[in-house]
């Protein structure tokens, strides 16, 4: 199949052109395919098939089917000629919402202005050559007549099926005149990319009993509207600390620079870790298997619940790229978490070891670690045990609908196993 596509496109395996003749064949094939896919309506495709079938049966001019073949050819040719003559000359303006959620329909309102000398008939707008993760309406909103110089607002409805960033490359206005069998119109507009964030069911609370821990530079990390800083004493000045923390009276008494220390530097810091590993025998990428998408949704739900508390949360995810984002107590916004989760991809490589090195080096400052796991292995068990031994609270969730996983006796007793169906339903009372 791959060889056939290379032959049609006229390219070698390295992407270079084989010859002008073969590249011309590929261009003609792509052009005809695009016209069939985008420029013909369902009724037009049926008409073309009728022409083909009647043409195969018209072995002699004396048969009635030959007359039908000629009539269909005249109809198709006449419609194409009229469509070209009345092709609308329009200008399109509009934009997409910057962001939407998986499964939630979004609408771009496009303003279409007739810049031609003649009226435009049966006018509509649609997106063509749409990415696989989106569904777009076509031929649903039609304006019967748009006079020269007049404008009309037409909706372009899009329903995302999977998360990610999408670019609509071919959004254009077209006319279905005269018989609704073809779409005539080449004037398009380039819209900004659409970010589709994962969907999740909010939970009322997420149970986490973690103690405060000392955070160097905690005043800069904490919220301006959180707990009031409580003075707990002085300590030796560390080079690089803000001058505003210096206690000049104590400095005068001791002869050495000292700083005031506040209780605000002690607060709860939570690490939220998303396991991005899936089996190499499954499809990888943003539109990966159901288990991984459910794990992403659960991560979003937990991140949302934690953001309502006075915590500092570090989100970790390692796939083809390493993501780390801190939010909570005015250090970041939960909306940015959703943007990161919209781009996280699964991988067939074991990446949890990369995260483990980073996390283990910071356990003295971390109060609790929440694991969202997509599989189970001895290395995962060892990581959970290391975090517990450091005195951190551990909450771990194993997201999988695979019945071939190790039996419950082989999985850590503290790990909660969840199926994708349960996550999609939601945990309204919390976890």
UniProtKB/TrEMBL annotation:
Write the record's keywords in alphabetical order, separated by commas: Membrane, Transmembrane, Transmembrane helix
Indicate yes or no for the key word ATP-binding. no
InterPro entries, alphabetized: DUF58 (IPR002881)
Taking every annotated instance into account, which residue ranges of this chain make up the domain DUF58?
235-376
Q: What parts of the sequence cross the membrane?
A: 40-59, 65-86
Database matches in Pfam families: DUF58 (PF01882)
Kindly give the PANTHER family that the UniProt entry links to this protein: SLR1927 PROTEIN-RELATED
Q: Specify the protein name.
A: DUF58 domain-containing protein
Identify the species of origin: Stratiformator vulcanicus
């Amino acid at each position: 199949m791959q060889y056939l596509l290379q032959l049609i496109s006229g390219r070698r395996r390295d992407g270079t052109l084989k010859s002008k003749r073969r590249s011309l064949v590929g261009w003609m094939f792509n052009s005809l395919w695009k016209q069939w896919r985008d420029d013909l309506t369902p009724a037009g495709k049926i008409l073309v098939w009728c022409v083909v079938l009647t043409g195969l049966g018209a072995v002699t001019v004396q048969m009635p089917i030959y007359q039908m073949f000629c009539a269909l050819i005249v109809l198709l040719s006449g419609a194409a000629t009229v469509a070209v003559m009345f092709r609308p000359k329009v200008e399109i303006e509009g934009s997409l919402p910057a962001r939407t959620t998986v499964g939630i329909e979004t609408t771009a309102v496009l303003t279409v202005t007739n810049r031609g000398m003649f009226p435009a008939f049966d006018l509509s707008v649609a997106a063509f050559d749409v990415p696989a993760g989106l569904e777009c309406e076509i031929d649903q909103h039609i304006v019967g007549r748009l006079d020269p110089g007049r404008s009309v607002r037409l909706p372009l409805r899009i329903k995302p099926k999977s998360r990610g960033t999408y670019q609509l490359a071919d959004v254009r206005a077209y006319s279905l005149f005269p018989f609704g069998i073809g779409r005539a119109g080449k004037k398009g507009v380039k819209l900004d990319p659409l970010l589709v964030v994962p969907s999740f069911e909010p939970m009322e609370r997420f149970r986490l009993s973690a103690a405060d821990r000392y955070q160097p530079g905690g005043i800069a990390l904490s919220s301006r509207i959180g707990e009031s800083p409580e003075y707990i004493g002085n300590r030796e000045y560390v080079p690089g600390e803000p001058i505003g923390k210096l206690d000049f009276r104590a400095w005068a008494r001791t002869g050495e620079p000292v700083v005031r220390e506040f209780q605000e530097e002690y607060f709860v810091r939570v690490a939220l870790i998303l396991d991005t590993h899936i089996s190499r025998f499954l499809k990888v990428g943003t539109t990966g298997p159901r288990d991984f998408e459910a794990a992403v949704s659960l991560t979003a739900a937990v991140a949302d619940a934690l953001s309502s508390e006075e915590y500092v949360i570090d989100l970790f995810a390692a796939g083809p790229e390493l993501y780390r984002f801190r939010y909570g107590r005015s250090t970041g916004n939960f909306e940015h978490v959703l943007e990161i989760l919209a781009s996280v991809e699964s991988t067939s490589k074991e990446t949890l070891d990369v995260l483990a090195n980073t996390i283990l080096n910071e356990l003295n400052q971390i109060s609790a670690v929440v694991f969202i796991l997509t599989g189970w292995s001895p290395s995962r068990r060892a990581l959970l045990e290391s975090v517990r031994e450091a005195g951190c609270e551990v909450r771990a969730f194993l997201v999988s609908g695979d019945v071939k996983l190790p039996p419950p006796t082989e999985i850590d007793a503290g790990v909660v196993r969840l199926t994708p169906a349960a996550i999609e339903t939601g945990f309204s009372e919390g976890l």
